[in-house]
Amino acid sequence: xxxxxxxxxxxxxxxxxxxxxxxxxxxxxxxxxxxxxxxxxxxxxxxxxxxxxxxxxxxxxxxxxxxxxxxxxxxxxxxxxxxxxxxxxxxxxxxxxxxxxxxxxxxxxxx
Amino acid sequence: xxxxxxxxxxxxxxxxxxxxxxxxxxxxxxxxxxxxxxxxxxxxxxxxxxxxxxxxxxxxxxxxxxxxxxxxxxxxxxxxxxxxxxxxxxxxxxxxxxxxxxxxxxxxxxxxxx
Lengths: 111, 114
Hints:
The structure holds 2 protein chains of 2 kinds. By secondary structure, chain A is an all-beta fold. Chain A is globular, with a radius of gyration of 13 Å. Chain A has no helices and 11 strands. The termini of chain A are far apart. The radius of gyration of chain B is 13 Å and the shape is globular. In chain B, β5 and β6 form a beta hairpin. Chain B contains no helices and 11 strands. Helix content of chain B is 0%, strand content 50%. Classes of the chains: A mainly beta, B mainly beta. Chains A and B meet through β4, β5 and β10 of A and β4, β5, β6 and β10 of B.
C-alpha cells in the first residue's frame, strides 16, 4: 500500500512567521492529497486538498504545492497565529480510496 | 458536527474481551474508513468499505474485522483485546467519487483495555 512520510514531526514558529510541512508519497497512482488539522481532543478536519492535475492551490493563508515527478507535496501557512497551533496530517489516496496519512506535525505558534 | 456518528464515545473493557464499534456515515456517503490513533500517534489506516464491499485494507490485525451493512453503517469488531489495543478509533466517510473528496471524521471511540 501507499507509504506517506511527513516532516518535521514538530515545528515551533513565532506568531506572524511562516510554517512549512513537507510530505512524500510512494505510489505514483495517488492522485488526491488532503491536509487535515487536529486540535487537542478533537477530530481531524480538512483544511485544504489538492488533486494531481493541479500544481498549487491557495486558500487565504494556507497553500499547498504538489510535485508529481518528485512525489512531494507541501503545506504552507503564512502569517501564523496562535490558533494555528495543532497537529497537521498530510494524506495520499487513489481517487479517495486507501487513504493513508503521514505521522503528523505538531505545530506550535508562540505569541 | 461532521455528520458522522460513532458509538460509543468511550469504552472500557478487560483484556481478552471482544467489542464492537459502530459508525453511521454522513447521509449520501458510500465510503467508510476506519483509523486507529494511539496516544500522541498518527492515524493508522485499518480498512475501507465502499457501498458494502471491502475497498482497501491497511494494517488491520487478524483479531480485528469490519463490515458495512446495506444501510451503509459500519461496525469494527475487535476481539481478544490486548492492552496495546487501547486507542482512539476514528471512522470517516466520504462520497468517494473518482478523483477524491473530503473525508469527514466522527468524534471517535476511545477504547481503554485494562
